[in-house]
UniProtKB/TrEMBL annotation:
Residues 179-268 form the MDMPI C-terminal domain. GO terms for molecular function: isomerase activity. Residues 16-156 form the Mycothiol-dependent maleylpyruvate isomerase metal-binding domain. Keywords: Isomerase. Gene3D superfamilies: dinb family like domain. This is Maleylpyruvate isomerase family mycothiol-dependent enzyme. It comes from Kitasatospora paranensis. Coiled coil: none annotated. It holds the Pfam family MDMPI_N.
Length: 277
């Protein structure tokens, strides 16, 4: 695909996922909005509020003026505080107010994406408080497709309404997470030079990737499999993305993973598998 086709694919993936969220929420009874999700401290309402907040900020809307309570135990960093503020501000909003704001925000963002003049490589601001930085426009759209799909799955698990495990945004998520595997294996887990670690993922999104650590300690990932890797993980797609997005602890995920090879290295990889802040 050309760069412009890639941008359109990311935009389409975001659209499909966020419209699925709107459809999921439309018939939701009031008491379901308070169900906890796998995002620490966040209910269904909070996850939706977060999606609204990010898309609104990308539209250039001002952040709300609000003071956070001091007893929110899941706030452990300045980034978490930044993300929490617009979520907490909306905790007094009714489901009707939240869904109306979401639908209006989606309309505005969709229009903005259609009318965007940025080229794929143009640098744009990623609003993330202390983690804010400039990135290529195409990368920002990829990140939004990834983030919205992950939160769609958060909502679906909380509401027991599975769906879209292999949607276009799910494939964006696969590529995003696979791109982070060399960092997980070589840098965070400290796999020694010459190591190979294989990930054999099954389910709606099926893939096989190998991380190779070269003599300098740098990791790379490809789709081939050599003989006798140091570690081979066998797991399903849902376990993979929940673990990689920090939705489940490695100890919990280990029950759904078969490991062949060096168990000590495998444990280090699992302990550092989460790529989201």
């Amino acid at each position: 695909m050309t760069d412009n086709q890639t941008v359109q694919a990311y935009s389409d993936a975001w659209t499909q996922s966020i419209e699925s969220i709107c459809e999921l929420l439309a018939p939701l009874p009031t008491d379901s909005w308070n169900r906890p999700t796998e995002c620490p401290g966040w209910s269904v309402r909070d996850v939706v509020s977060h999606i609204i907040a990010v898309e609104s900020e990308l539209l250039g809307d001002p952040r709300p003026i609000h003071s956070l309570p001091r007893d929110l135990r899941h706030i452990t960093s300045e980034f978490a505080r930044y993300v929490e503020l617009p979520v907490d501000k909306r905790r007094c909003h009714t489901p009707v107010e939240i869904t109306s704001e979401l639908e209006y925000t989606v309309i505005r963002r969709s229009r903005a994406l259609r009318n965007a003049k940025q080229e794929p490589a143009d640098l744009v601001r990623w609003p993330a408080g202390p983690l804010s930085h400039d990135m290529p426009y195409a990368e920002l759209l990829r990140n939004r497709a990834f983030d919205v799909w992950v939160h769609e799955q958060d909502l679906r698990r909380a509401l027991h309404v599975p769906g879209n495990p292999d949607s276009p945004a799910a494939l964006v998520t696969r590529d995003y997470l696979v791109q982070g595997l060399p960092k997980v294996v070589a840098k965070l887990a400290g796999a020694p030079a010459g190591s190979t670690v294989v990930f054999d993922v099954t389910g709606p999104v099926e893939f096989l990737r190998t991380v190779r650590v070269d003599e300098t300690g740098r990791g790379s990932v490809d789709g081939s499999v050599g003989l006798a890797p140091d570690v081979q993980f066998h797991l399903d797609w849902e376990t993979y993305h929940r673990l990689a997005c920090g939705r489940i602890h490695p100890e919990t995920a280990a029950r759904s993973i078969r490991v062949d090879g060096d168990t000590e290295l495998a444990a280090r990889v699992l302990a550092h598998f989460a790529l989201t802040p």
